[in-house]
Structures are given as structure tokens and as C-alpha cells.
Amino acid sequence: MPEGWRWDRTLFQGSAVHYGRGRLPYASGFPEVLAGALELDGRGRLLDVGCGPGTVLLPMARYFTEAVGVDPDADMLAEAERQAGQRGVTSARWVAARAEDLPVGLGEFRVVVFAQSFHWTDRDRVAATVLEMLEPGGALLHISDLKDPPPEPVPPSSTAPPYDRIGDLVRRYLGPVRRAGQGVLVDGTPGGEAAIIERAGFQGFVRLVVPAGEVVTRTSDDIVAWVFSRSDSAPHLFGDALADFERDLRAMLAETAPDCRFAERPPATEMRIWRKPPG
């Protein structure tokens, strides 16, 4: 986890209701690509650690006998269960726990996935635990937006969301150092996952990139939801100033795009896979 920072339950407090609308989706074809790469056939079990509202688990559940989502945020799990009901996913269940609590009697899995959640954990400890929870030859999967290169720009005739100005506004309200729960991230979130995962005993690294596709149109409501879906601008951080912040945010968005419509090209989805040695 980030050096000098300690996890607490307010990390994503109030964000769950904004997540589905605010976050850009992963590339639409990622479940099929993964199913092919991992030779999934409807058998075995999936564990999604830090599952949030089921963003990855729900579209992947059909490839497994059972899918288990673990998250410490009760609101995220409630939203995941609601989404599962809407989508008719009956093979999923949800467990309130931190990654550091594993294995909590959950048994053996064919695939364990971290979708932009591994950096919040005690990574050496969690990687070692996951290795024990996987069946021989099972896969640890890390999913994230592809950061390099960045997405292609939107067409010149379109208006992109003013993310730099949004960041400046957040810092004006919350201070110059990135907030995270009750603490701050002086140096941001850590990288270097590969070295930690391989040190735990995983091998056979494979990297897959799935293109995201065409430009999407987003409204001001979508951008506001994106802001409140983030740990560093979760609603609770603003306290009594929340309404003032949202007012200023919406005024900025209206100034940038009077029609309150923005164009954005989603990033590609990067998937990194390591295997537990067989036997």
C-alpha cells in the first residue's frame, strides 16, 4: 500500500452510487479476450479482490461456476448486488472483507483478479496469500486502464472534459496533497506490481491490451459522478463544503461546454496475467 498511509473505511465513502455512471468502462471486449487467454470453460471459481460495484466480476461471472466479490465498503457491495440483480447474474456472491483478511475461508479459485485495487493493499502479504488460494496453474489477473500511451484526442470539433481544471478545483477545496480516506498520499499510489507478484512465486507473465473503441459523449452529470467516484474527491472529504464544491464544479463545466456535453475517448484496457506454478 502507499508508504506512510493507512487504510480506513472512509476511502470510498459515498462513492458507490456514482461509480457506474462516472467511471469510463473497460474495453467492451475484455471478457472474451480473457476467456480465450485463460481457456475459461464455465468451470472453476473467480475471486475479485476490491470488487467495488462489480465492474469486472459481473461481465466475467458467466465463465465460472461461481464468482466471489470481496470489498470492505458495504455500499459498494450493496451496489454490486443490485447490479447483479438487474443483469440476472445468479452465480455471484459478495463478502465484506479487506484483501488483508484473506483467505477468510473462501476456498480455492481458478482466477483471482485485482482491477485497479492491488495498490491499496499490503501487496507482499496479499500476493503470497493469493498464491495459496489459487489452484495449481491458476491465474492472478491485474486489470487497469492503459496509461501509456494516452488515448487519442477527441475530434477538434468536440469539447473534452476539463480534467486539469477539475483537479485544480479539487485542490482548492481539499488542499495540495492528494487525499485518501482520513490520510493523504504524498507520493501518490505505488507501482511496481510485477516485481512484487513475481517475488511471491508467480510466473509465466502475459500482457494483453484491448482497444477501447470510439469516442463517447458524456454529460455534466457524468463528469460530476466521475469526480465523486474517486477516492481523492469522494463526497465525504468536502464536509460542509460539498454543495459549494458541486456548484463551482457545475459552473466550470457549463462554462467549458454550454450544452453540457463532452466528448471523450476511453483508454484501452491493459490486462496482466501471472500463473501459479502447476503441481
TrEMBL record:
InterPro entries noted in UniProt: Diverse_substrate_MTase, Methyltransf_25, SAM-dependent_MTases_sf
Keyword vocabulary terms for this entry: Methyltransferase, Transferase
One Gene Ontology MF term: methyltransferase activity
Methyltransferase domain mapped to chain residues: 47-138
Protein name: Class I SAM-dependent methyltransferase
Gene3D superfamilies associated with the record: Vaccinia Virus protein VP39
Pfam families: Methyltransf_25
Superkingdom: Bacteria
Gene Ontology BP terms: methylation
